[in-house]
Amino acid sequence: MPKIFPSSRKMEFKGSSWHESCFVCQHCRQPLGTKPLITKDNENYCVPCYEKQFAHHCYSCKKIITSGGVTYHDQPWHKECFLCAGCKIQLSGQRFISKDEHPYCEDCFGKLYAKKCAACRRPITALGSAKFVSFEERQWHEECFNCAKCCVPLADLGFLTQGNDVICHKCSSAT
């Protein structure tokens, strides 16, 4: 590198010195002078070039993500852009369920897609009670799978059907 003589203008940055004409953006080669700059891998970039080259753009709004953000399906999102596909509430920081590559809050997923418990009619989702019982096209939360007559829990017992009801062996023999 040629010497910087006292009569020439020099730029100093992070303990190094450059000729003014050599202190340029690594990408567009425009002089950086006193403009804001970003250093990456010991190379200096003007802010617009750095953003074009390296910054993540939100999958939803396409604007640059300057800090934070979330990743969903390997795509970056602003926290405020990551919304439930149903009700549009912000999902960042809360549990959600993915369906057909769209995120849903638990309420919307339950209303739109989840199977309903045959006893309480509430949705059965992976975010709620993870354990459930399935029998002949019907599903129950584990805690709702009880004998229709005496209400004893049937999840770990044998059971019989009587019409649409499930009953324990004790109640079936009392009939």
TrEMBL record:
Primary localization class, coarse: nucleus
Start and end residues of each LIM zinc-binding domain: 56-115, 116-175
GO BP term (any one): positive regulation of transcription by RNA polymerase II
Stretches of the chain forming a coiled coil according to its record: none
Protein localization: Nucleus
GO MF, one annotated term: transcription coactivator activity
GO annotations of cellular component type: nucleus; Z disc
Keywords, alphabetical: LIM domain, Metal-binding, Nucleus, Repeat, Zinc, Zinc-finger
Tree of life domain: Eukaryota
PANTHER family the UniProt entry points to: FOUR AND A HALF LIM DOMAINS PROTEIN (PTHR24205), FOUR AND A HALF LIM DOMAINS PROTEIN 5 (PTHR24205:SF7)
Record protein name field: Four and a half LIM domains 5
Organism: Nothoprocta perdicaria
Lineage: Eukaryota, Metazoa, Chordata, Craniata, Vertebrata
Gene label: FHL5
